[in-house]
Predict the structure.
Amino acid sequence: MSSPAEATEYFQHVTDTVCDIVERPWRRMPKAWYVALAISLCGAGLLLISLTKLVLTGIGIWGNNNTEGWAWDITNFVFWIGIGHAGTLISAILFLMRQKWRTSINRAAEAMTIFAVICAGIFPLFHTGRPWFAAYWLLPLPNDMSIWPQFRSPLMWDVFAVSTYLTISALFWYVGLVPDLATLRDRFVARGLNVRAAIYGALALGWRGSARQWHRFEKAYLILAALSTPLVLSVHSVVSFDFAVGQTPGWHTTIFPPYFVAGAIFSGFAMVLTLMIPARYLFGLKEIVRVDHIEAMCKILLATSMMVGFAYGTEFFIAWYSGNPYEQFTFLNRAFGPFAWAYWTMVTCNVIVPQAFWFKRCRTNPYIIVFLCILVNIGMWFERFVIIATSLTRTWIPSSWHYYQPTFWDISTLIGSFGLFFTLFLLFMRFLPAVAMFEVKFASDHAHAGPATAHH
Amino acid sequence: MSSLNPKDGKNGDTTWRGLSDLVAQAKSEADGVEDAGDPAVTAYLEQRVPDHDELFGDPLSRRRFIQIMGASIALSSAGLSACRWEEDHIVPESHRPEGYIPGVPKRYATAMELGGTAYGLVVTAYDGRPIKVDGNADHPHTGRGSTAFVQASLLELYDPDRSRAVERHEGTNSLPATWTSFEEEIRGLVKKLGQSGEGLRVLSEATTSPTVAALRRDFLARFAGARWHEYEPLSRDNERAGTRMAFGRAMRPHLNLVGAKVIAAFDADLLGDHPESLRLSRDFAAGRDPDDNAAGMNRLYAVESAFSITGATCDHRLPLRSELIKPFLIALEAKLGGTGAAAPSMAAFDAKAQKFLNVLAGDLVQNRGRAVVAVGARQPADVHALAARINSVLASDSTITYTADPDGDRPTHTEDIVQLVADMQRGAVSTLLILGGNPVYDAPADLGMAAALAKVATSIHLSSYSDETSAACTWHLPRAHYLESWGDARTFDGTYTLGQPILEPIFGGRSAIDVMKLFLGKGDVPTEQLVRETFEAAAKELPTGQTTGDTAWRRALHDGYVARSAAQGEKPAIQPFTLAPLGATQSKARVSNGSLEVVFTSNTATFDGRFANNAWLQEVPDFLTKMTWDNAALISPRTAADLGVAHEEIAEISLGGRKMQIVVYVMPGQAPLSIALALGQGRKRAGRVGGLDSEGVGSVGFDTYQVRSSKAPFIATGASIDGTGKKYRLSLTVDHYNLEERGQQAIAERLPDLVKEEDVEAYKKPGYSIVADAHTPEIATLTVPRTADEANESLYKEHRYDGHRWGMTTDLSKCTGCNACIIACQAENNVPVVGKEQVWRNREMHWLRIDRYFKGDPDDPQIARQPILCQQCENAPCEQVCPVGATLHSDEGLNDMAYNRCVGTRYCLNNCPYRVRRFNFLRWDWYKEIDDPRAKVRSLLFNPEVTVRSRGVMEKCTFCVQRIQNVKIQAKNAGRPIEDGEITTACQDACPTGAIVFGDINDKRSKVAALRLGPRAYNMLAELNTRPRNAFLARIRNPHPELG
Amino acid sequence: MARFEFPQWTESFKKWVLLLMAGGPVYLVALWAYGLRPETIRIGYQPKQPVPYSHALHVGELGLDCRYCHTTVEKSAHAAIPPAQFCMNCHTAIRTDSAVLQPVREAFAADATLKWKRVHDVPDYVFFNHSAHVTRGVGCEECHGRIDRMEEVYQYARLTMGWCLDCHRDPAPHLRPPELVTQMGYDPPGDRRELGRQIAANNRINPPTNCSTCHR
């Protein structure tokens, strides 16, 4: 139990640290930020070029072929959707579970979620041969042809699942932002910076922090959290149906939904850490994003990693147990066929590497964590590649077996999507409060001592 | 919406939807673009294509489709893709011919000549625009079905690269020339040559045309000193020489496979490149049907060096160097105890070969009178004589008959061209008229044809393309396509067949007859009259005494042939003859590098090179190698290992002092120590498909004529091959040979379920069913309408199929793998060509493919074959995953594909267990020539009944739904039911063996319904409950118990 | 710390903002839907033809049967536009010197072609067959309207897929005895739908609605 004075001082400190990132003049932005932004912008540009080329020339610029209708395009889609899972999980589920440590990272995680979903959304649209039609034929709009989309298709389900997810998480994020935006607004007013004050003021929707508003806010936040929770599970389940519903050996399996969700959380957390740990140093958030927070996340990584590993094992067991020769061959082919290198990369990165987190040293050393997390993300990309590409290369009829090779444009599109993602994230760091100040304050021990108001 | 308007300059588009546009553009280009051809096209279209928009409204050209898409890009957000097209015109003809209904296809009988043989054909034309060629079902010899070459000959008609103008060369520079100036030249020439005509020579490709023969007689009578030469790179001269040895005069053997029980083919591709392949395939299949065949199935043995489709179809095959066929036959004859049999030497044969020999001999003896032996055209003369003698020993009068060779006394083609070139070199030839053919490219390499041509003052070359020979001649004359000219021919059995033009020459070409008559001063006699005169003359001589006069003529034109005009079969007596002594290597089982054998084979894509510019043929995968856009040196796996050359490695072959580099293809089943070189690639002046140096278009494949000499034009020995280590990328549609162990094993495990085969003994056991032993459901349960309970198994409403219920059966016992169906499908359904690079990327577009698997020992494998098209599943996996419902089920059970709804997610492709769906990854017309105004003529090729698909759209076999719809409409208009067999698919029409049967399963009397319930019927991957509408009929083999 | 206040006058924005947010999309969608309806962009299309041929005169007044000129309509997918020769069947005798007929006479004399403008145009991937409809008793009028009242032909029907389906799903109201297909202003006594149902029953007319019915 600390004294109100201490509490006030602590709160003031939190506010200052977080707001400083937004308020500081450009020259005080760390060099690294500028470098990162420059690189990311190049990446985003590459994405723009790649997609333009794609629309003008056709899917033929990619490596896809008559045997592999899908390859990197859908791999990237599933990868990004996976990344997009941590945010809502942390904000919603952990919020409902009253996990205090989440407060320091949930804001960034949610932002990350939204950006990831945006990146993911690119692929289902642009992987089609005629996106200019897909853009609206996939939506149930009344039309002169008097025909509707085909609701039996998992791709239709995707459309709804992903768009719902994007909407809800965006709302959730924004609502969470309101009090902190108000804080920024007030600080700008205090410093007489009216333009910014007006902008943040408009964004803050006239937040006053009155008890009534707080009451409403709490309710709204709780409801949105409750809404998002099932989404965390549903979205990736639906995405996994793209494969589970298909009958290709290696796709046609019932464990996909839980397996995909676990994988999504796994990759999502890895990405959060990859982003937050550098940010923590760059913007001096050490006291707020504390080591024990990071450690907690590493434990989750370890858990989900083992879930994913278990899923890999189950797949093989079922293939053998089913007695279906096609199924069996698909998995033998995964592990020992022409794409074995991809499979073992996946296993190493997703199952073996994370075992390091059994050791406290690994859970606390930021360098190790970032390194391992990057490996995990690589592994998770390969997981999707292995499921999609290696299953398709060798399906039922041997005469149509074929090896898949990506082209320059496959690679550029993937890199480009990263560019877009990081661009958005870096801008977010600069212009919005990267940490949910008021939540941190609530969560801190001081909260019980001091006055629970977000602004002084 | 200007972006939709082709005449709108902004998108600089040269596409046309209707004649109006075409004419407009052609005109505008005629002034702007330098383009000899287009006014011709325009003129042709103006006079020949009436009411065009009514006709061309539907087959939007590829680019046209793209325009719509393009507009949609601009306006997709606005959803305007359905808005009004550009202003469009309808241009009716001023006078409509009587009885002509615009938009209703007409069918004409005509004839096509190919390498000294001919086919009686039926051409389908939309408003004067041929869009499909098929065998003339009524023709006594050709009959139903066709070859890949016949099917693809249509593409040549619309080939933009066909020669469009008379050319005149003086040294390197070319002078302006027209047909008129050529006619003047001829008049002068004829005057100059006077009566004697010394130094006047004609080099003609082999032709069976009676009219040409008549003109030739007149010609040689008119010019005493003139001489007529004939040359074909691939000819059956050895057969003529052989029969001359055996019978005293040149004869033509005709096998009658219907009654044959044992057939032994020695280096003979009876079902493939044989001029009678269509009839032989038909008869072979008839004797092959295990069900309706009292005599019991025939048994086919093949002994050959290079794998042929005959070898792939046979029951027992022995890979043997071609040069060893002779000692093998000697040994065989000895075993059969023929009189005058030479002493056999078995040195060259290992145990396997000897066992094969013994079994074969035993089988032949056992079936004396119902057995026959055939020898391939490339075997030397005395081997043919030997075969004739063996056949006489086998008393095979019923299985083989002989007809007199129509031109028995002429020298062989090789002798003839050697003679001609010799004369040219010593300056004895002042004027050379080359009718067809391409000697500079395909004459034996040791002659130096080009150099010799330079010594000829006036050399005139008539050919479809301005090719290698044209360039070396002083005159080049564009030749009319057979669909553009009057002509006649005799099919291999001698049936008198007439060829009538379907349209005016698009590029102003003329036929050989047209040119010949100029020399005889008959320039103003219409060719039709000449052809008719010949016909009248011939008709009188016919034993059956055909009536002449208009009726007979019109009837003959209508039928396309003269009934009972085939040559009379004879039973000549064998005369004694002595065989040439065996060469050194002919008694050796193993020879060293340096004395290897090289066998020159015909090319399944280009024949002898004449089809090199035919993209359909270049892209159709060779049945055995699955190679497209190439030719290679085929070597057996063991030999490759021994000589240290690798698959897809460039190797240097040296033969008789000549060297060439060519890619190696390690071919399972290729005879050891024998190299097979397919002729007919590596063209330098074929066109923008086959290779055109002048426009920087590289040759397709390798020119194997470089190492072919007049000494040994078919089988040469003393060759050596050395790897260069350079890699070369072949575009194979299937490449399993160098698959890793596990993959090979998986294929071996799956094959019995995918491609079902059975020995006839097992099959004949009572109560046998092909699916009884497998895990697959009985096909009967898959075809009968499902009960309510079964229907409830599915979440979705099941179709009931009360009306029609289209189905197909594919008989694996009858399919030979001749590829005719693939190209027929391509022609019927406007299937695009994608080019070598894209085939390598596994993006070929063929709706119908023929899977080929090797089984067993790589050095002597068996072949499993399976034509695969869309199986039209009743419970189609592709349908439920399409998000926009672009592929849906029709109430007749067809798996409809609505191209214009497809957005191209490719999910259906992933979910199709048969992998029959084809995606337009790019705009396949995106090769440079489409932007060349000359290429507009291509648009005439499209079948107006089928949408041309755009980029980004999925497509697949539709069971030729356009044919189904049209027949249905006709039948309903007439208020009658649809007869069984009234609707045929394109592949079915093309199949010479009748392996494909299509019909209504609900019609219990239909053939297809019966076949589907037969004991051989099975569905592929039926365990997936896809309930395919196509059923395969298992292949029944007839192995000899001792070789089994 | 001073609290930031939006000035009072901004209050009045609120309702406008709300109105814009609620009404804007509605307005746009409505504009969209109306602007792109075939009724707006297709129906009534009436290009100027090279010869001012009057259906009103020939069909309406003189009572020519459609099939007199469009001879192929019962046999072919296409209701072919008549060649100049057909016009001259009469116009060698009637109005032989009319100026408006000059192009026709020239075309006929020179064996040249007349360039009519296409009025009824469906997308290129739609395979419509006239004979299939005419012989079943779908009147010309159903799709082409009262030709007998058109001086120059204009597009009468929507010709959209939905429009086709309306009839294919419920043909009865559009059917008539096949012999009356060319009759203009067909108006049978009694319930048209009922009559159509009988015709459909008698001639076993059940229009398919498969993709491949129109798209191949």
